[in-house]
Amino acid sequence: MRAQMVKWGNSLAIRIPKNIAQEAELSAGDAIELEVAAKGSVELRRVDKVPSLAQLVSQITPENRYEEVASGRTVGKEAIEW
Predict the structure, then answer these.
(1) N or C: which end of the chain has fewer CB within 10 A?
(2) In angstroms, rounded to a whole number, what is the distance separating the alpha carbons of residues 42 and 20?
(3) Which residue ranges form the domains of the chain, and what is each CATH number?
(4) Phi-psi region of 27 (alpha: psi -120 to 50; beta: other; left: phi over 0)
């Protein structure tokens, strides 16, 4: 299937036809990674969705948690009194 490259601001854009997007399971808002595969050829892949903060925190375990690291004496207003 052919498509036409168009100017979009300082960039170039191409519309992905509906049937191609459906077959590739792509939808509006999906993050896509672009890579030059060869001269005149571009490869694109959907990037996995960015995990939420709750998903990341749920992966914290005692095995992958590090102790607090001292970085020297406090300077300015960074010291907090509890």
Answers:
(1) C
(2) 16
(3) 6-64 (2.10.260.10)
(4) beta
How far, in Å, CA of 44 to CA of 34, rounded? 5
At residue 60 the predicted structure's pLDDT band, cuts being 50, 70 and 90, is: very high
**Amino acid identity at 76:** G
Tell me the per-residue pLDDT of 4-56, one tens digit each, with 9 for 90 and over: 899 999 999 999 999 999 998 898 988 899 999 989 899 988 888 778 899 99
Whole-Å CA distances, 3 to 17, 52, 54, 73: 8, 35, 40, 61
- The residue assigned the tokens 């406090």 is 74
Q: Which residue has the tokens 């808002």?
A: 29
CA angle 42, 44, 45 (to 5 degrees): 160
